[in-house]
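Sample intake sheet
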Amino acid sequence: MTRARTADLVDTQARACGELDAPLYAALLARAAQDIRDGGPCADAVAPLEGAPGPAAVGLRLMGAVHALVLLGDAPDLAAHYPTAGGGADDPDAAWEPFRRAVAEHPEHIAAWMRRPPQTNEVGRANMLISGLLAMVAALRLPEPPPIRLLELGASAGLNLRADRFRVTSGGPSAGPRFSWGDPDSPVVLDGAWRDGGPPPRIADAAARVPALDIIERLGCDVDPLDPLHPAGALALRAYVWSEHPTRAARLSGALALARRQPARVLPRGAADFLAEAELRPGTLTVVWHSVMRQYVPPAEWSRTETELARLRGAATGPGTGWFAHLAFEPRRVGAVHRFVLTARLGDGPEEVLAEAHPWGLDARACEITSIAP
């Protein structure tokens, strides 16, 4: 990538932030893109990525690096404009100079963060994953739900391996019947999970039939996992949540607290190698799930991953071998656009499209897509 191309990618991220209700980040990234073109401090910050192949998420790396400075207390002037530090995000123009100064005054910090790919362990996506899991458990039509083994691909810090401990809610007096599932005392509440007050009938019925799940194993993989119990891991997770989204930050704080109480393991390896070691277990439901990670897996590795998924599907013949389900919340092409959809496959049955949602997993609705591309 040339400097001009890098600036264009930062501009693209600025537009995406604007579309996703982050006007402060949109304005700062647009200014940063121009600063790159002008050879300012932001140009020095992104210079190591100018030769990188592909998009490299330049804008997200830069915003994560600066947000970390704010959270560490090393950019007090900018903190006045960042809600996660108690500031207000209503004056992007006034935030630009403190932002630019933070980049200029902390080159080693910025360089270290620019070398790492962003990781957003988005807790809201658990809404889709747990909805699919409830539907698959109900589809087994067993007298009692079987013990469940969760295997997550691209798990980051493994926060969504605790999804059954979250509370999912939607609806209310002005939005139709109230829907809720999960622990009422959970520190993680995914409110606004569904449009129009609740999920489609199949998932609502499944939630009523399966009020609790017995998760006996929580295991994930990631090429560069974060430890949510370590201060550096927690800082990275907080830094990649956009500062003007306090509700997302609150969900993350709750998930970090829950991680201290509920163990889960994330192994440092790719999806294909991880699944190559996986086997079914008699009398249990083994679930492989993932959310918004497939785009980061090289095509050759994803082909190997699909081979391993097919192996597990073929091995699932009933209680004697154990059951198997594959759940994915991923962007899928529908015509000329991408939509974020929940797909599910029980055993060797057909793939089903269950729902679609905002990229962060909430504001979901029944999906009427009949044909989607990988």
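Comment: The first strand starts at residue 148 and ends at 153. The two ends are 27 Å apart (CA to CA).
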